[in-house]
From TrEMBL:
Record's protein name: pepsin A
BP term (GO), one: proteolysis
S-S bridge residues: 103-108, 263-267, 305-339
Gene name in the database record: PGA
Enzyme class, UniProt record, top EC level: hydrolase
Length: 378
């Protein structure tokens, strides 16, 4: 099995971490830029990163976003014999779904589609599933089958089979999404994959952790059952959740050059592997970007590529600790559109600490104690 491996401590074979490598592939934005279609796409499908966290969709419908900058995907399999799919491991949602052979949307035509008729372990549920996106929705139905993640076989896992998908999905490399948030967020009452892993005793600890490589196409990984010290150094800061629906924590403040530029007095943030940027209220993001020397242009905040080395650090103060991002971490360069910051406008109050943040800080999601752990990524 090329796409999964197990790391075991020498003291005991039982102390094993099950890991799924994540591929850092070309993003939808990069593909569209190469085709000269990005501006048309951006205007037609505006970025709405907060859609998946809209309280109106917290239960019953699960919101997603048309995030054109997502680039990390892992492989799972469903059914007997197994059918493989690339999925986004998304700590900001709770459902598992993949395209099905019953999907007629353009987004399904260039992705793998699950065929339930060829799986001997598939059982139909029959209930409909609808997942709301920022610019459309996925509709389908629910079924049960064996889902294998990193070599762990979760039997009778409920999952969604899409029948229609929003148009922007055709530009993404991932076939579907595997949600890793709390079950109370799950659409149609579907039990999340990690909850079944815990219930069935497939993991040593009720913990999963994520390492996102900054520079390499390979090396990123999601670990089930614990933490991998090979991917971080220094102490782990454990932060209690302020809400156990998402992986939501309290940020004390955000500073640039020692000056508070956002979150004065504290704010709420979600650690989300399914969002590429750091997202916050428009006024706050504008203030931060101004302090960093970035200017707004066509929906992005751009900087002079020659000035990145002289740009200041951006620091998030969380639970009494400083989590600092250098300019090399928060500036992204495109061969077509120059340099822009990885800071995007979002909702009124809630922040998202997405991949731009997680690449710098190994992120540990502790269901046993309802905490997030952060440590400096190697």
């Amino acid at each position: 099995m090329k796409w999964a491996f197990v790391v075991c401590a020498m003291v005991a074979l039982s102390e094993c971490l099950v890991q799924v490598p994540l591929e850092k592939g070309k993003t939808a934005r990069e593909y569209l830029e190469e085709q000269g279609l990005w501006e048309e796409f951006r205007l037609k499908y505006p970025f709405n990163p907060m859609a998946k966290f809209d309280h109106r969709f917290a239960v019953g419908n699960e919101g997603m976003t048309n995030d054109a900058d997502l680039s990390y995907y892992g492989v799972i399999s469903i059914g007997t014999p197994p059918q493989s799919f690339r999925v986004i491991f998304d700590s900001g949602s709770s459902n598992l779904w993949v395209p099905s052979i019953y999907c007629s949307s353009a987004a399904c035509s260039n992705h793998k589609r699950f065929n339930p008729t060829t799986s001997s372990t598939y059982r139909n549920n029959g209930n409909p599933l609808r997942i709301q996106y920022g610019t459309g929705s996925m509709t389908g139905f629910l079924g049960y089958d064996t889902v294998t993640v990193g070599g762990l076989a979760v039997t009778n896992q409920i999952f969604g089979l899409s029948q229609t998908e929003a148009p922007f999905m055709q530009y993404m490399r991932a076939d579907g999404i595997l949600g890793l948030a709390y079950p109370s967020l799950s659409a149609s009452g579907a039990t999340p994959v990690f909850d079944n892993m815990m219930t069935e005793g497939l993991v040593n600890e009720d913990i999963f952790s994520v390492y996102l490589s900054s520079n390499s196409q390979q090396g990123s990984v999601v670990t089930f059952g614990g933490v991998d010290p090979n991917h971080y150094y220094g102490p782990i800061t454990w932060i209690p959740l302020s809400r156990d629906l998402y992986w939501q924590i309290t940020v004390d403040s955000v500073t640039v050059n020692g000056q508070v530029v956002a979150c004065n007095g504290g704010c709420q943030a979600i650690v989300d592997t399914g969002t590429s940027l750091i997202v916050g209220p428009q006024s706050s993001i504008s203030n931060i970007n101004s302090a960093l020397g970035a200017t707004s242009q066509n929906g992005d905040y751009v900087v002079n590529c020659n000035s990145v080395g002289q740009m200041p650090d951006l620091t998030f103060h969380i639970h009494g600790q400083a989590f600092t991002l250098p300019a090399s971490a928060y500036v992204r360069q495109s061969q077509y559109y120059g340099c822009r910051t990885g800071l995007g406008n979002g909702g009124d109050n809630l922040w998202i600490l997405g991949d731009v943040f997680i690449r710098q800080y190994y992120s540990i999601f502790n269901r046993a104690q309802n905490m997030v752990g952060l440590a400096k990524a190697r």
